[in-house]
Design goal:
Number of strands: 0
InterPro entries: Ferritin-like_SF, RNR-like
CATH topology: Ribonucleotide Reductase, subunit A
Number of helices: 13
Protein name: Rubrerythrin family protein
Bound molecules: fe (ii) ion
Mean pLDDT: 90
CATH superfamily: Ribonucleotide Reductase, subunit A
CATH class: Mainly Alpha
Oligomer: single chain
Order of helices and strands: HHHHHHHHHHHHH
Number of domains: 1
GO molecular function, one term: oxidoreductase activity
Low-confidence stretches: none
Helix content: over 70%
Organism: Paremcibacter congregatus
Strand content: under 5%
Structural class: mainly alpha
Distance between the termini: 40 Å
């Protein structure tokens, strides 16, 4: 573990610098990160033949769990009505990752590693954006430390690919790589985020009057995410994804992909403007 909660300046917490629009996305992230044990079990099964990968996944899972605990602690300071473990329990009871007895849902171990790179690229850009959009000192420090971890996770999964699955990666047609990367990045049938967003809100849990609506929760969550990102965060995300498929990150391909992605992102941002306003 490269850092602990002792590295966060909790005594400097500034309630007046909490941006209320980002509190729900911090709570949502806290629940997803703290649920890492499910992914550790899933990945241990996929990589059961490689002991060194299994060990690396254990360490990775502990770091993700620490991200969840730390974000949860901050969220409870920002909103004292937030009860992290209560909400986490609710989330775990209602959401389970898809069954994994058959191995990787990505079709192969190398496909799984590519998908992991996409997730870590996404979290790297997410915490970088969050770091730059908050002035609250505790959250700023938390996001800085987590963003560094996420980038090292991205490098970890790339390194594992290169060390243990290079032949499979090299033989994989570029279109299959693109399909895997874009497929993971645009997955829309996954209700993990939507259900975590729902679970993060006490009023849903206690009133029992607001049933879970995946589409609505997803729209509400992403309307906040669209506003969080700037063009440079999309460029960072696209650069890491281009690298994942084995292409040079600083190339015209990256520029074109970033411009297109930012254009679509901006359209979605304006289309969702009425939500949360
Ligand atoms: Fe994380
Ligand atoms: Fe991570």
């Amino acid at each position: 573990m490269t850092w602990t909660q002792a590295h966060i300046p909790w005594d400097d917490f500034k309630p007046d610098q909490v941006n209320p629009t980002i509190v729900p996305i911090v709570k949502t992230a806290a629940l997803i990160e703290a649920n890492s044990a499910s992914y550790v079990a899933y990945l241990q099964n996929v990589f059961s033949a490689e002991r060194n990968i299994a060990k690396a996944i254990d360490v990775w899972g502990q770091q993700e769990y620490q991200h969840g605990l730390t974000l949860g602690r901050w969220a409870a300071l920002a909103d004292p009505s937030f009860s992290f473990f209560h909400n986490l329990d609710f989330f775990r009871k209602g959401y389970q990752i898809p069954a994994y007895e058959a191995g990787s849902t990505r079709g192969s171990p190398v496909g799984e590693l590519l998908a992991r790179c996409v997730v870590e690229a996404g979290t790297t850009s997410f915490y970088t954006a969050l770091y730059e959009q908050t002035s609250e000192p505790c959250l700023k420090q938390i996001c800085l430390l987590i963003a560094q971890d996420e980038q090292s996770h991205y490098r970890l999964f790339r390194a594992l690919t290169a060390k243990y699955y290079y032949a499979e990666y090299d033989a994989m047609p570029i279109w299959d790589k693109i399909k895997t990367v874009v497929g993971r990045a645009t997955e829309t049938d996954d209700d993990e985020i939507a259900y975590a967003y729902y679970s993060a809100h006490d009023r849903h849990l206690h009133s029992g009057e607001v049933p879970y609506d995946r589409e609505k929760c997803s729209k509400l969550y992403f309307s906040r995410i669209y506003r969080l990102y700037q063009k440079k965060h999309i460029e960072l995300l696209v650069r890491l994804m281009v690298q994942t498929i084995g292409k040079t990150p600083n190339s015209p391909v990256t520029t074109v992909c970033s411009t297109l992605t930012w254009g679509m992102w901006s359209l979605k941002k304006y289309a969702s403007w009425s939500l949360n306003h």
